[in-house]
User: Which sequence fits this backbone?
């Protein structure tokens, strides 16, 4: 069990569901040397959208709310947590309003939660389970929930984001101290389909992580996929509401003593029905900078 002493016995008794998660199939031989590739746009003829075979596994996903209440699931310990927070924004259909109002609101929230001295919002993604479609022409519609175990950043990719979003001199100063990238994930309606599962960072081994190229029309970024490990501890927050949110860390530059990232994925809730309302959500990614010595 990956939680601390206060939560070990409780975690084993928490209600859970048995669900199938899409891991990356462990490669062998020459294939083990090839980095998986995912395209965000229509790939060249004969090229698959995603390379690297999937290996679905049935796992237990436990209700994380009791452990959040004990501070056993937190950004620092497990790499994710759940908070109560109602946005002032009710209509997420206008990009300009999201950037003008929601970005500022989330900056303040992340500063309060993390104790950081500076927050820089990178971007946001809207997701809609029936409407989303990858490779669609601009303007992009909401994307579908991603149903494979992944993390949004590698360490190299995270440092690149700092240099892309800060002036050169400030970027180098910030990179000399601790920083992180945190996602703020919020449902736009109570989640009844394709909820989010999150893996306790303490249960992930370095060899489970597989760096992956994410190809855009004008650049290539790096994300991570994961191979299966029976030690992985999975959690979710059933029927998450719009006045709740999940914070998950996708990179932390601190090398030890804290969760550095959080594997996560959408999954089919076996207790739900396909007639349930679609899952609609917004995820916002932000750089988090602490003062020197923090």
Assistant:
């Amino acid at each position: 069990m990956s939680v601390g002493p206060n939560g070990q016995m409780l975690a084993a008794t928490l209600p859970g569901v048995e669900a199938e998660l899409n891991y990356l199939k462990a490669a062998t031989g020459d294939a083990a040397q090839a980095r998986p590739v995912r395209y965000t746009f229509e790939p060249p003829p004969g090229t698959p959208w995603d390379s690297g075979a999937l290996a679905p596994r049935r796992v237990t996903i436990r209700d994380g709310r009791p452990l959040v209440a004990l501070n056993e699931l937190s950004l620092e310990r497990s790499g994710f947590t759940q908070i109560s927070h109602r946005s002032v924004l009710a209509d997420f259909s206008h990009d300009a309003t999201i950037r003008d109002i929601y970005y500022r609101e989330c900056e303040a929230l992340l500063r309060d939660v993390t104790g950081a001295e500076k927050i820089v919002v990178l971007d946001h993604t809207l997701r809609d389970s029936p409407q989303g479609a990858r490779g669609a022409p601009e303007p992009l519609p909401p994307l579908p929930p991603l149903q494979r175990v992944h993390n949004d950043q590698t360490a190299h990719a995270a440092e690149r984001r700092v240099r892309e979003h800060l002036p050169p001199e400030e970027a180098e100063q910030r990179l000399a101290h601790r920083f992180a990238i945190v996602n703020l994930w919020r449902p736009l309606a109570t989640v009844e389909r394709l909820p989010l599962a999150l893996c306790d960072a303490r249960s992930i081994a370095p060899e489970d992580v597989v760096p992956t190229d994410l190809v855009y029309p004008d650049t290539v970024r790096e994300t991570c996929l994961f191979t299966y490990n029976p030690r992985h501890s999975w959690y979710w927050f059933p029927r998450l509401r719009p006045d709740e949110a999940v914070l998950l860390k996708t990179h932390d530059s601190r090398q030890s003593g804290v969760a550095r990232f959080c594997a996560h994925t959408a999954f089919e809730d076996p207790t739900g029905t396909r007639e349930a309302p679609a899952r609609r959500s917004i995820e916002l990614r932000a750089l988090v900078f602490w003062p020197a010595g923090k």
In short: Residues 132-140 have pLDDT under 50 and may be disordered. The two ends are 29 Å apart (CA to CA). The first helix runs from residue 8 to 13. The helical segments are 8-13, 65-69, 95-114, 155-165, 168-175.
